[in-house]
Amino acid sequence: MIEESKKAEEKIPYWQVFYDDIMLLFFLSAAITFISFTVWGLMEIGNTPVMPDYTF
Amino acid sequence: MAITSPERLWWKQPVCGQEKLWISIALVWCIFITAIMPYWHFFGKQNPSQEYYRVSPVKYGAIVDKFTAKHKVGEEAGIPVVDPPPGDIFIAGSQFVWHPILKLKSGRTYRLHLSSTDMVHGFSVYPMNMNFMAVPDMDYVLTIQPDKAGEFFIICNEFCGGGHHTMTGKIIVS
Amino acid sequence: MEDFRVCPATGLKVHKPAELLIKINAVTAIVFILIGGLMALLLALTKIPAIHLLPSDLFYRFLTLHGIAMLVAWIIFFEAAILYFTSAVLLNCRLAAVKVAWLAYGLMLGGALMAAVEILIGNADCMFTSYPPLQAHHLYYLGVILFAVGAILVCCVFFGTLAVAKHEKTYEGSLPLVTFGAAAAAIIAIVTLAHGAIIFVPTWLWALGVIQHIDAPAYRLIFWGFGHSSQQINVCAMVAVWYLIAAVTVGAKPVNQRVCRTAFVLYILFIDIASEHHILVDPGFSAAHKAWNTGYFMHLAVLASMIHALAVPSAIEIALRKKGHTQGYFEWLKKAPWGNPSFSAMVWSIAGFGFLGGITGVTFGTEQINIIAHNTWRITGHFHSTVVAGTTMSFMGLTYIVLPLIFRKEVAFPKLAKFQPHVFGVGIWTMAIFMMFSGSFGMPRRHWDITFSDAAFSIPFDQTAMMALHIFGVGAIIAVIGGGMFVLVSVATLLIGKDIK
After folding, report:
1. How much is the average pLDDT of B135-147?
2. ipTM of this predicted complex?
3. Which of C357, C377, C398 is nearest to C84 (CA)?
4. Which of the listed residues C157, C173, C189 is the one where a domain comes to its end?
5. pTM for the complete prediction?
6. Is the predicted pLDDT of residue A5 greater than 70, yes or no?
7. How close C301 gets to chain B, by Cα (Å)?
8. Inside any domain, residue A35
9. A19 contacts C174? CB cut-off 8 A
10. How far apart are CA C486 and CA C70, in angstroms?
11. CA C92, CA C79: separation in Å to the nearest integer?
12. Which residues make beta-bridge pairs with B174?
């Protein structure tokens, strides 16, 4: 009995709290996608050099 | 059950050996397939090109026309045929044709410029089955070295309007 | 508490307004799969060289409609039903903001119909991707935008319901695994739909003439942040449905919550960047951008799929062994409830998504291999494996659970229902495999005439590839029959099914 009540009081592990935090997961998901895919991609398109002139 | 809340401290439930083994195998496999791409990039002989420039469709069209006029040697199916020396060569996707037809020499190195004068087109070489995108506003430079003589067809494999299925072109390698 | 009824089978408290919303969204989804399926039949009959049914303009028009009706309308309406079910029903909770949920439904329906009508009257022959400078009528883009706004509202109602349930303490501790999976889908949905809004609003203004130019490479980048990621919503929803069906049909318990939830967290964090797969042979992006976004992080999402691929079947095996099917390695498999269409649809879905869709997806997602697969029919075969053999199949399985549980009707034509997943499965597998097969010869996607009879050069496709087109056609027709059986059983259940007390 003592052990059981101890278990009930035991602190919830850090990772479990993280997994239960839907909003935090949402912000991380948005941040990773936008930084790694979208913003980086737009920067690359924006930094594309202009085609040199070709004369024939 | 998956449809009810789990026990309070589900994080502490130990993972059984079989699951650990499976996850380890999968993880190693994922690292392996991740490593292939950079490996191939540095040691492989066939990678997507990294060379590209900004160009308006109008300007690209004008460059291709000038290139065609300079090296034109004939016409086939109403499409001009060009026989350029090794170096910069140009091809454009326009509704609904790939032009000009290029005559290339086997074993020589060319810088093939690929773009579109209107819509987004798909550049697909048959029968080798090599596929790249021809995107307006962008000049895509593919450094190529033909290694087989023969006639190669170009298909458009991105929908570009009502006549999309009639859009073809040709590269002749001698 | 007159807004609630207690489900006699499960003891769950069901919020009646939520139940009504689940019903209306599911029924609308089935109407759209009927439209999309009809288009599929006409398209397949055109693709078979010996029949070549439609003229080219109608082919492209119906192909566009097929994409919108299936990829967007059928799947997202059904997902709205899933989100309401996994939040309100599984958490014994009232649905937050019922009026907003109805507004969302109205926007989605209005948007989908607006887009569909624009396509049918010939104002939007632009395919699902609508790459500029190819321009559709501005009302088409507006329709897509309205639909996306509605879908965002659905996700907001879902998150609101999770908050209400937590506040009113209708559950203890963590969310059930299935609800957690649905939350993963909703998170991905919002990130996805944000990309949709970022690109479709300027494109709409461009069609109206307000903006002069849409940059083609930038459109392709952001569009795929929407177009590909929206299929990741389906992946999450589908996996959540696997756990749900396994729990309901055989009483399977997740072997380890930590492992299963980690897999969903990996999806949430890393799966969206797989949008890169569409721009691997595009100009404008460096090899670093391509390799990073298809490399290690994305493969962590692949790892997640591998984890689910073990976790779901092993949970089923354990549950069936507990029921006494313990002889040898495979008695449990033999004694599994194959006659239950929910169960068999789930098995087809797991196998189809994993072996056909997942493996081809990871392969084609390699930068260099993509050169020989990009925009060929291989790609079409790949996403028919993931979205149809995977997601659609699992949603069909869920329908057979929802009909008695939420609609409180006995499934009509039970014998037909029993065979339905097998017919659909055989059809869609045959179809997808032979799409990929002919694609590997370089056969292009979105193409009306593979014989190139009107083209400058008629390209002599390999006879094996042409042969494969006919086998594809047979598979497609079987799949359409399987899909028709699904619609028939569902509609008949609604109209003439016996009420369950």
Report:
1. 94
2. 0.94
3. C398
4. C173
5. 0.94
6. no
7. 10
8. yes
9. yes
10. 15
11. 19
12. none
Burial profile C91-104: b = 16 or more Cβ within 10 angstroms, e = fewer:
bbbbbbebeebbeb
3-state secondary structure of C12: coil
Q: Which residues are within 8 A (CB) of B43 and not within 5 positions of it... i.e. 6 or more apart?
A: none
Question: Rg (Cα) of chain B, in Å, rounded?
Answer: 24
Angle at C360 between CA C358 and CA C365, to 5 degrees: 95
Contact C289 A44 (CB under 8 A): yes
Residue B90 has pLDDT above 50, yes or no: yes
Are the C-beta atoms of residues C353 and C337 closer than 8 Å to each other?
Answer: no
Q: Name the residue type at position B36.
A: I
Question: In the 3-class helix/strand/coil scheme, how is C241-272 assigned residue by residue?
Answer: HHHHHHHHHHCCCCCCHHHHHHHHHHHHHHHH
Pairwise CA distance, residues C95 & C159, whole Å:
10
Percent of chain A with pLDDT over 70: 86
Total number of domains constituting chain A? 1
- For C230-289, write each residue's pLDDT tens digit: 999 999 999 999 999 999 999 999 989 999 999 999 999 999 999 999 999 999 999 999
Domain span including residue A27: 13-45
In a domain, C253, yes or no: no
Q: Which residues, numbered 417 to 446 in chain C, qualify as contacts with chain B under a Cβ-Cβ cut-off of 8 Å?
A: 440-442, 444-446
CB-closest option in A8, A19, A56 to B70: A56
- Cβ C273–A37 below 8 Å, yes or no? yes
* pLDDT at res. A1: 44
Domain containing C384 equals 337-501
